[in-house]
Automatic annotation (TrEMBL):
SIS domain span: 284-425, 457-598
Annotated catalytic residues: C2 (nucleophile), K603 (for fru-6p isomerization activity)
Name used for this protein in its record: Glutamine--fructose-6-phosphate aminotransferase [isomerizing]
Record lineage: Bacteria, Pseudomonadati, Pseudomonadota, Gammaproteobacteria, Oceanospirillales
Protein source organism: Marinomonas sargassi
Keyword Transmembrane carried by entry: no
Keywords annotated in UniProt: Aminotransferase, Cytoplasm, Glutamine amidotransferase, Repeat, Transferase
EC class name: transferase
Gene name of the encoded protein: glmS
GO molecular function, one term: glutamine-fructose-6-phosphate transaminase (isomerizing) activity
Length: 608
């Protein structure tokens, strides 16, 4: 999604802004731009494509100045062209960058056109800069003009504004899109996330919904949605959890796949004893666990798949009804909330617009409490939820979520066991589950050992256009996740089915061109799955089977076998995820796609 960086300093800020944009590249974007304010005016460069294209423009024509704003754009209104790239200008010396969507941009555009404003782009954003320009005609203070203009906007935004007439400050604001202030010594910054500013500061202020901030060299003044000045706490970034370079790996995604044993260990650390889940991990008061009678899980994308797995665990271990829903649907329907229902959100970023909107709606629906399982401690989701369980996976940069997913599953397993203990799980059963969890990092390590073998298999997918993933029970959501990974980064159309559904339709697709990836743990569904595989084999389909040795499956004419470690059945969904991540990674590499920043996708989906 769009990314914003803003800076004011005693030194030239252009390099700081460009470095900030490079650090935001992982979020996904299709064009970039920067505006620099100096004694002679506000000047900008904009370019379609990568931040490198913008850097090249600086080599042709250097822009120097001590204040500026910069942007990576992920197109929503209007194609990714230079004229639609931000910053947008009004009157030549007022420039603005924006992340979000202005829903009432059409009537505003008409009003502004009637006042004589000429639009240079197709974006919704351009109305904001003209509104501010118009407000400045009656209200000379940039801060007041911005506040007056924001009051007219419907939708979501984070913005940064510079004006040449006022070279002592820039103004930024957020409502519905993330924005953080970076505090320096005689220099201050804003950005869409902390990672964009770690090269200049480790001190941050997280803005609240509706905040407007006046940023000068030595002061950051924050006003809330009512215009009242507010003090917000400064937090210091913990560098030990930052891992933003690729190390020995060619792509972030592969580095993050290989980090999984370590981060799963970090997710469990301090949360299990020899034989128990330590409920203190949910905060000082874990009394809510006793009261839970139902669970509603709401999330998007990969996080939604993690929620689907948790439904199996919660219903099996705790015997409590659990529903799982994508946030974009949940937020727009009337939801019946039974008594004592836990509202549980899952999100890697904690900034996903639909998940945040669902949480805000849920707060008015009488839930028992709200729990967020999230990877980013400073995120809006964490700040707005009553309870949090952090996944501790460290920064995830690859757009395709990997370690965030397996740590979400680990955190969900901890949660499921903690709830189950209050619902009749015996001490002996709890102890066995805790033992299983403790062995998880080692099993993930063994699953990674199949990397070379999977790399060879990946070659066979290079010319495929479709793939089918099959799983049963808690492995069905893993099949869905495997198919999402493959389509996201290799652009191969992939679908997932519970294997029992094959003969109700998808079997019609099966022929020798259709790879069928089947997840076959050795559990009580094994014989059923083997029958499903026979149905495929009988129609010439090529089966890629991921199974443990005990299943007695192996390479055959129409079966390509990959061994997955034999584990306690509760761990199967987590361990079976690893080979599917490796498969999609290697297929993408064979196909030569942009693995870490696949086309059209964004890391943090901060707009609806
Ligand atoms: O940050 P979140 O977990 O809330 O993000 C939700 C989805 O946008 C995300 O999982 C998306 O599906 C990933 N690209 C999957 O790899």
């Amino acid at each position: 999604m769009c990314g914003i960086v803003g800076a004011i300093a005693r030194r030239n800020v252009s390099k700081i802004l460009i470095e900030g944009l490079s650090r935001l590249e992982y979020r996904g974007y299709d064009s970039a731009g920067v505006a620099i304010n100096n004694e002679e005016g506000v000047f900008s460069h904009r370019a379609v494509g990568k931040v490198q294209a913008l850097k090249d423009k600086f080599s042709d024509q250097l822009l120097d100045g001590k204040m500026g704003i910069a942007h990576t754009r992920w197109a929503t209104h209007g194609k990714p062209t230079e004229s639609n790239a931000h910053p947008h200008f009004s009157g030549g010396d007022l420039a603005l960058v924006h992340n979000g969507i202005i829903e009432n941009h059409e009537p505003l555009r008409l009003e502004l056109k009637a006042k004589g404003y000429v639009f240079q782009s197709e974006t919704d954003t351009e109305v904001i800069v003209h509104l501010i320009h118009d407000a400045l005609k009656v209200e000379p203070s940039l801060l007041n003009a911005v506040q007056a203009s924001l009051a007219k906007l419907e939708g979501a935004f984070a913005i940064g504004v510079v004006q040449n007439d006022d070279n002592e400050r820039f103004i930024a604001a957020r409502k519905g899109s993330p924005l953080v202030v970076g505090v320096g010594i005689e220099e201050n910054f804003v950005a869409s996330d902390q990672l964009a500013l770690l090269h200049v500061t480790d001190q941050f202020i997280f803005l609240e919904e509706g905040d407007v901030v006046d940023v000068t060299l030595d002061k950051v003044t924050i006003y809330d949605a009512q215009g009242e000045q507010q003090d917000r706490p400064v937090s210091v970034f913990n560098h030990s959890i930052d891992a933003t370079d690729k190390g020995e790996f060619r792509h972030y995604m592969m580095k993050e796949i290989y980090e999984q044993p370590k981060v799963i260990r970090a997710c469990l650390e301090g949360r299990i004893s020899d034989n128990k889940v330590l409920t203190s991990c949910f905060g000082a008061d874990s009394g809510f666990l006793k009261q839970i009678e139902n669970i509603h899980i709401v999330a998007c994308g990969t996080s939604y798949h993690a929620g689907m797995v948790a439904k199996y665990w919660l219903e099996e271990l705790a015997g409590l009804p659990c529903s799982v829903e994508v946030a974009s649907e949940y937020r727009y329907r009337k939801v019946a909330v039974p008594k004592n229902t836990l509202f549980l959100t899952l999100s890697q970023s904690g900034e996903t617009a639909d998940t945040l909107a669902a949480l805000r709606m849920a707060k008015s629906l009488g839930y028992l409490t709200t729990l967020a399982i999230c990877n980013v401690p400073s995120s809006t989701l964490v700040r707005e939820s009553a309870l949090t369980l952090l996944t501790n996976a460290g920064a995830e940069i690859g757009v395709a979520s990997t370690k965030a997913f397996t740590t979400q599953l680990t955190a969900l397993l901890l949660t499921s066991v903690a709830i189950a203990v209050e619902n009749g799980l015996s001490a002996q059963e709890e102890s066995a589950l805790v033992d299983a969890m403790r062995s998880l990092p080692a099993y993930v390590e063994s699953a990674l050992a199949e990397d070379e073998h999977i790399k060879k298999i990946a070659d066979r997918f290079a010319n495929k256009h479709n793939a089918l993933f099959l799983g049963r029970g808690a492995m069905f959501p893993i099949a869905l996740e495997g198919s999402l990974k493959l389509k996201e980064i290799s652009y191969i159309h992939a679908e997932a089915y519970p294997a029992g559904e094959l003969k109700h339709g998808p079997l019609a697709l099966v022929d020798e061109d259709m790879p069928i990836i089947t997840l076959v743990p050795h559990n009580d569904m094994l014989d059923k799955l083997k029958s499903n595989m026979q149905e495929v084999a009988a129609r010439g389909g090529e089966l890629y089977v991921f199974a443990d040795k005990d299943t007695d499956l192996h390479n055959e004419d129409n079966i390509v076998f990959t061994e997955v470690p034999k584990v306690d059945s509760i761990l199967e969904p987590i361990v079976h995820t690893i080979p599917l991540q490796l498969l999609s990674y290697h297929v993408a590499v064979v196909k030569g796609t942009d693995v870490d920043q696949p086309r059209n996708l964004a890391k943090s989906v901060t707009v609806e």
